[in-house]
Amino acid sequence: MNHVLKVNNISKKAKGFQILNKVSFELGSGEIVGLIGPNGAGKTSIMKILVGLTKNYTGEVDLSGVKDIGCMIETPSFYPYNTGYQNLMYFAGLNGVGKKKVEELMELLGLIDAANKNVKAYSLGMRQRLGIAQALLKDPDVLVLDEPTNGLDPEGIYEVREYIRKIANEKNITVLISSHLLGELEKMCDRAIIIKKGEVIQFMDFHDDKKGKQIIYVIESLDTKTVQKILQENGYYVVSQNEKEVRINIDANEKNDVAKLLASHNVVMTGLYETCGTLEDTFLELMKN
Fold first, then answer.
1. Count of CA atoms in the C-beta half-sphere (13 A) of 150
2. Rounded CA gap, 174 and 70, in Å?
3. Which comes out higher in pLDDT, residue 228 or 180?
4. Of 130, 50, 51, 25, the residue nearest 88 (C-alpha)
5. Quick check: 39 and 178 in contact, CB under 8 A?
6. What is the mean pLDDT of residues 44-59?
7. 27, 254, 264, 283: which has the fewest Cβ within 10 Å?
8. Distance, first Cα to last Cα, the chain
9. What is the mean pLDDT of residues 170-184?
């Protein structure tokens, strides 16, 4: 993969507190990468360094492969009593971009019908899309989005997700995106960078992970404590247990062995099925340690 941006050993301190500690990663051309971590993990600090809003750090950001970076960090601000079109034209003027570009972006982000409405009347999802359009005015090859679906309803989240995918595919733009909605990131992203307390603790490639992923086997029973005990005594890794079900992490070819083992102990199972481990499962497991 052709890498457009490289971050090498970025560290940042403030008032004696280590905000970032030797963070390194690369972003490939046209890929969507999720930046994931709990509040205070350093996500916004990384993004501010990438777009030049923070200068006080050590390490290196290699932007030699980047022509321009667009960003939307925190909620975008517009003139509420001007239309979406007028707002974009104003920012286009500041960026030395013409009317044709504004119209193209309004089309790309599904804002043509709302072009002549005052921004005050826009839904939050429409404002977020207008913010993304603003970030794209200078034809960046990297787009940095901090919580672009924050506060949106399910329809708005779906819209923004689909437009981000469209931008990456049609314009070959590399997108770095943070969000608390892990299920959304899993649907949208090619990879994820998981950070905790200012350090990268895991990279996830969703394409590779889906190929060789272990399955989560869900066993429903009236006596899940007994099920858990039998499985653990036989060396199986129990992911979770509650009064309704036990979840274990196994290879796909071990399903029959588990079923036979439980049957040999006369366990009554009310349900038995497989599901894939999600990004959320992985994230929660990593945050425990």
1. 14
2. 10
3. 228
4. 130
5. no
6. 93
7. 264
8. 32
9. 88
